Structures are given as structure tokens and as C-alpha cells.
Amino acid sequence: MIEFREVDKTYSNGVKALSSINLKLNRGEFVAVIGRSGAGKSTFIRCINRMHEITSGQLIVDGTNVAKLKGKQIRRFRRRIGMVFQSFNLVTRTSALHNVLVSFVPELPLWRKLTGIFPKHNKIAALTALDQFGLLDKAYVRVDQLSGGQQQRVALARTLAQRPDIILADEPIASLDPVTARQVMNDFREINEHMQIPIIMNIHHVEIALEYATRVLGFRDGTIVYDGAAKDVTPDI
Ligand code: ADP
Ligand code: ADP
């Protein structure tokens, strides 16, 4: 469902971040992307939802040739892909509920988003999404009053509200303490197992990656040097 064919990515400053990537990722996989800083992991993930454009080769996502998308199609395509970041990327001065709602109803006019007047059925759905992550009692709390783990769970609720076909996660636990990190990884696992949503995650905690992922991609200098089951990984990638 995600296929890279001879994909290269060279940034405008001449840095070659990806070279000759060939890969097929399947539905239902939980993929951990590991490797040193600068290896190309983040570029790899960000090419999938076209936050970055590939330089050559082909990238096919669910039958869509990503490089060929234009204007409105890009926005529509991105909405099918949930993105979770290290820094949560929430609007911290508004409530958890508001953060979920805004992504839930992308078509609403801006004035409605700003004034916070949302249709009732959207509100119920957003509250349900927060409830799934044990955050119902935090719905009306400002995001900057929540812990890191709670914020990442709001981000997950927001992402799921979007009903994504794929979830990309760029170091989602890097700023969390080890206990909270595992709780958030459990949430990812649940989403992957119960909803069959494939997850592609950059993660520098190799041990945690091996514990949760079904497949591991090891990057070095813009190429994939390891691709296999988590159980077969030796720690020196
Ligand atoms: P990783 O996620 O593994 O740390 P990145 O994909 O961020 O690796 O970076 C791969 C290489 O591309 C690095 O040399 C990095 O400096 C470079 N790079 C990343 N983003 C950009 C960018 N927007 N413009 C130019 N070079 C970039
Ligand atoms: P693209 O070719 O994908 O559009 P650009 O080369 O235009 O990417 O860079 C995108 C942004 O990333 C620019 O604002 C640039 O300043 C920034 N950037 C440049 N070098 C790096 C780097 N080494 N790591 C991360 N970001 C970078």
C-alpha cells in the first residue's frame, strides 16, 4: 500500500537525504524506523505525506502517485494521513476538545473554528475520541495545563478523528519520560491492532522500537541497511 521505487531525495542545499529507496509497506504493519541522527529517517517519513517532495523515482501510496498530486489534491491526500510529532503540534491556548474538533471539521468556515461553534454531533464524536484515550475529564482543560503524555494522547485523538488510512509518527515519544512513553506506545499498538491502521514511526529508542514494532527499517546515510522483523534485529544497526 506504500511503495517506494528507486526514490531519491536531494534537498535544495545539495544534501542527498535518501538514495535508491526500494520498499513495500503493507496494511496492518507497525514499522519502526531507526538509525543515527541525519540518516534520513525524518525525510523518509515526510516524503510519504508530501511534506517533502521526492527528487526522483516513484512513491505510490494506496494507488496514488504522490509526486503527481497538485494543489487541492495534495490537501485531500494529506487528510488521509495522520501525522504525530515529537512536539505534539497542538494549539496550546485552547482546550483539548477544541484541538480535536478543529481537525475533525476541516470544512468549517474559519469564523466557526475561531468562535468555537461546532455542530453537536461533531462535539459528541470528539468527546468520544478523547474518552478512548481516557481524557474525557480533560476535554475542557487548556492543553498547556496537561502533561506531555496527555498532550500526546490529545494529538492521537485528533489524528484518529481525522479517520486516517495511515499514521506517520516522527519521534512521538522523544520528549516523554519512560513510563509515559510506554503508555503512548501502548496506544499506538492498540490503534494498529484494533483498527488495522498501519503506523510508520521514527524512534530512536531501539529497545522500545523492537518491543512494539512488527517490522524494523534501519537507515544509514540515506539508505536502508536493515529491513526485517523486530525479533531478528541485532543491536548494532
Ligand atoms: P534523521 O531524521 O535521520 O535525523 P533527516 O531526514 O532529518 O535525518 O536528515 C537527513 C539529511 O538531510 C541530514 O544531512 C540533514 O541535515 C538533511 N536535511 C534534513 N532536512 C533538510 C532540509 N529541509 N533542507 C536541507 N537539508 C535537510
Ligand atoms: P524541500 O526541497 O523539501 O522543499 P527545502 O530544501 O526547501 O526542502 O527546505 C525546507 C526547509 O527546511 C527550509 O526552510 C530550510 O531552511 C530548512 N532546512 C534547511 N536545512 C535543514 C537541515 N539540515 N535540517 C532541517 N531543516 C533544514
From TrEMBL:
Keywords: ATP-binding, Cell membrane, Membrane, Nucleotide-binding, Phosphonate transport, Translocase, Transport. It holds the Pfam family ABC_tran. GO terms for molecular function: ATP binding. Signal peptide: none annotated. InterPro entries: AAA+_ATPase (IPR003593), ABC_transporter-like_ATP-bd (IPR003439), ABC_transporter-like_CS (IPR017871), ABC_transpr_PhnC (IPR012693), MetN_ABC_transporter-like (IPR050086), P-loop_NTPase (IPR027417). Residues 2-237 form the ABC transporter domain. The keyword tRNA-binding does not apply. PROSITE patterns: ABC_TRANSPORTER_1, ABC_TRANSPORTER_2. NCBIfam families: ABC_phnC. This is Phosphonate ABC transporter ATP-binding protein. It comes from Marinicrinis lubricantis.
